[in-house]
């Protein structure tokens, strides 16, 4: 290295040493404040975005939930409607039960009163079954049914029930034994 | 890593200096003020000096330093550790900003000390350098520094930045090559030419000042 090179290198070192080592302190402070402000704003914006996203997802979830509920109700309603549409069996046919073949009709009918409906449990048997003219002891008792209906004395009379079975002039609750063909074969009155 | 900066603060804590650029950039993005402090402490001096030597204007150097770090504050994720060091990234920003500013300034005020000087004028041979050696030796230390500052300032930008990085900031040629995105060979040849230009310019000044011509 010649002397001029050495002097140049020396000059470079001197110039480097004379150069400011750092930017002024104000620049540092300004930047520090800018950094703080920027990130405060960024965090605030992020929180807002998060809250907004959370709110939006909650709204969407609520809408979906309400939709699913309403669709669930719609699914249930048609089934109810179909149930309503189906013809209900006549109330009178509910107590219809089959009478076993090996038991006599009277005892069978009496045993049937052991577990009547709640409403009917309060009913009191006033008379024993009285056979009607249509009853033939030779008939098979299989398939006999008892129907409890309210009948007027005239109707009972038409069926061929003797007059002592029912009080005259008013409707009475009556157990009617029907054979397989639906023909009344015996009756008894039931008081309440 | 070839890109290294001159240590301004030998008393800096080891824990601070050992934090790598990737971790620093992640912490910066999260808003860690301490990480920003470390980055600023580490790079503000070299960037400010670079901008000052490149522009020759202290106020402009401050503005450029501020802009470089503001960009880092606003868009920390723009820095990709896979592409290079954080220092290189910041220097790259500073370099672009300085060039733009100086170009704008040149539109209004020509600031080369020799109006006749151009890139072609710096095409000098070894013999010219040898002839001026004695004159250079005669300069005093203060005159030498001032002459050098002016001479560096008047160099074309591509030579100026090589001199600033390698001779003033004592960066390795490989580091400067990484920063300026050219080969180390280009850096070496630019340095050689830049030094020759500086010697010639300083000799001219020295000769004028000493009244030797």
For the structure shown, list the relevant keywords.
heterodimer, A: 192 residues, alpha+beta, five-stranded antiparallel β-sheet, 5 strands, B: 213 residues, mainly alpha, Rna Polymerase Sigma Factor, Chain: A, Arc Repressor Mutant, subunit A, 2 domains, 10 helices, globular
Listing every helix as H and every strand as E from the N terminus to the C terminus, the arrangement of chain A reads HHHHEEEHEE
How many structurally independent domains of chain A? Answer: 2
Mean pLDDT of chain B: 76
Helix- and strand-based class of chain B?
mainly alpha
**From the structure provided, what is the oligomeric state, counting identical versus distinct chains?**
heterodimer
Helical residue percent band of chain B: over 70%
Condensed summary:
Chain A is of the alpha+beta class and 192 residues long. Chain A contains 5 helices and 5 strands; from the N terminus they run ααααβββαββ.
What does this entry look like structurally?
The complex is a heterodimer of chains A (192) and B (213). By secondary structure, chain A is an alpha+beta fold. Chain A contains five helices and five strands; from the N terminus they run ααααβββαββ. Chain A has helices at residues 3-18, 25-85, 105-112, 118-121, 153-159, and strands at 124-125, 130-131, 145-151, 172-178, 184-191. In chain A, strands 1, 2, 3, 4 and 5 form a five-stranded antiparallel beta sheet that branches. Chain A is rod-shaped and about 155 Å long. Chain A starts with a helix and ends with a strand. The model of chain A is unreliable at 79-101 and 103-116 (pLDDT under 50). With 213 residues, chain B is an all-alpha fold. In chain B, helix 2 packs across helix 3, helix 3 (33-55) packs antiparallel against helix 4 and helix 4 packs across helix 5 (86-108). The radius of gyration of chain B is 19 Å and the shape is globular. Chain B starts with 13 loop residues before the first helix and ends with a helix. Chains A and B meet through helix 1 and helix 2 of A and helix 3, helix 4, helix 6, helix 7 and helix 10 of B.
């Amino acid at each position: 290295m010649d002397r001029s090179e050495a002097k140049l290198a020396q000059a470079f070192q001197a110039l480097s040493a004379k150069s400011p080592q750092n930017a002024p302190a104000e620049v540092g402070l300004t930047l520090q404040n800018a950094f703080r402000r920027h990130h405060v704003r960024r965090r605030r914006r992020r929180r807002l975005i998060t809250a907004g996203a959370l709110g939006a997802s909650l709204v969407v979830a609520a809408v979906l939930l309400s939709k699913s509920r309403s669709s669930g109700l719609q699914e249930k309603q048609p089934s109810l409607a179909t149930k309503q549409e189906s013809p209900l069996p006549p109330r009178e046919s509910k107590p219809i039960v089959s009478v076993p073949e090996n038991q006599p009709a009277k005892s069978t009918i009496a045993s049937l009163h052991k577990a009547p409906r709640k409403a009917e449990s309060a009913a009191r048997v006033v008379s024993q079954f009285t056979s009607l003219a249509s009853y033939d002891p030779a008939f098979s008792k299989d398939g006999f049914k008892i129907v409890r209906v309210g009948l007027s004395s005239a109707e009972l009379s038409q069926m061929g029930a003797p007059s002592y079975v029912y009080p005259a002039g008013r409707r009475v609750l009556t157990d009617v034994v029907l054979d397989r063909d639906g023909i009344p074969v015996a009756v008894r009155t039931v008081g309440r | 890593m070839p890109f290294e900066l001159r240590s301004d603060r030998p008393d800096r804590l080891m824990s601070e200096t050992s934090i790598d650029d990737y971790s620093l950039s992640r912490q910066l993005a999260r808003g860690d003020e301490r990480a920003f402090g470390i980055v600023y402490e580490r790079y503000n001096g070299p960037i400010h000096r670079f901008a000052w030597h490149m522009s020759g204007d202290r106020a402009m150097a401050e503005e450029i330093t501020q802009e470089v770090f503001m960009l880092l504050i606003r868009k920390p994720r723009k820095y990709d550790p896979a592409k290079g060091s954080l220092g290189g990234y910041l220097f790259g920003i500073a370099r672009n900003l300085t060039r733009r500013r100086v170009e704008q300034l040149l539109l209004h005020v020509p600031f080369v000390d020799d109006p006749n000087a151009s890139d072609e004028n710096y095409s000098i041979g070894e013999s010219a350098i040898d002839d001026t050696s004695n004159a250079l030796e005669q300069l005093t230390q203060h005159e030498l520094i001032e002459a050098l500052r002016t001479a560096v300032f008047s160099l074309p930008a591509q030579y100026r930045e090589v001199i600033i990085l390698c001779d003033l900031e004592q960066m390795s040629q490989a580091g400067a090559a990484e920063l300026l995105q050219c080969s180390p060979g280009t850096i070496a040849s630019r340095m050689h030419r830049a030094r020759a230009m500086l010697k010639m310019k300083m000799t001219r000044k020295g000769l004028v000042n000493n009244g030797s011509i």
